[in-house]
Amino acid sequence: MKSLKRYQYEKYAVLCNLAYPRVFKQTRYGFDPNGQRIVANRTGKTVVRILWSQNREEAVIVIKGSHSPTDWLLNFAMWHRTCRHFGLNYSIHAGFHFILNQESRPTHKKDQLGLSVFERTISIASELIENGKRIAITGHSSGGAIGCVIADALEQKYPKSIKRIVTFGQPAIGGYGFKKRFKLAHKTYRICCDLDVVTYLPPIPFAYWHVGKMLWLYNGRIYENTPSVVRLGRSLISWLVRPFSYHLMSKYIRNKDFFDER
């Protein structure tokens, strides 16, 4: 697995953050004026943005995380649903399955009625791949989870079409069958920040598994593939000792810039 470079991390982090506002001007970030397609959910809210430009090989699929009370409630649907009708031979979290399988409201003149979020995303991405693009996928929270499923489906349909997957604060996706059959673990980077509780969900040992390389951003360093139990233990210990750390002289030295030069 190749390493994730800093500029790549920053690019995907910025796109993930900017996916949440209602209006997104893709031209400010180097994409073509007509280089954006939106995939909406059953209520017409944006779930997926697909971005591209003619002079770049890479097209980017950006997927939002939970952004409504209903979406958050879906996180409690912790039973498994099969993905066979997506062309995938494994099961995933029922809440993520619902997000993918819900009907997508048309947002573009090319959009057809009756397609799910999954089907519309695959249709738009397939057209880009057939025109020579490779696909990078990034998503936050549940968006990262469903992004992995979309990426795997595209890879099965168009081998070597996926460039990389970068997720932020992503919960686990599916059972051991998912972990075993997921084809893109070597291209997947899962970013975790400090004690982000969502990255420990669903809290059912051995029923849910993560995939790819985990990069844990903690105490000013990057740790690779740190087990969840170790992450949790270090974070809790850090919380317990933090009040005492403010007594260290290094803290007083670090804060010298608060004083004016005289």
UniProtKB/TrEMBL annotation:
Gene3D superfamilies in alphabetical order: alpha/beta hydrolase
Pfam families named in the record: Lipase_3
Annotated InterPro entries: AB_hydrolase_fold (IPR029058), Fungal_lipase-type (IPR002921), Sec_MonoDiacylglyc_Lipase (IPR051218)
Domain Fungal lipase-type, chain residue ranges per copy: 60-204
PANTHER family xrefs: ALPHA/BETA-HYDROLASES SUPERFAMILY PROTEIN, FUNGAL LIPASE-LIKE DOMAIN-CONTAINING PROTEIN
Protein name as catalogued: Lipase
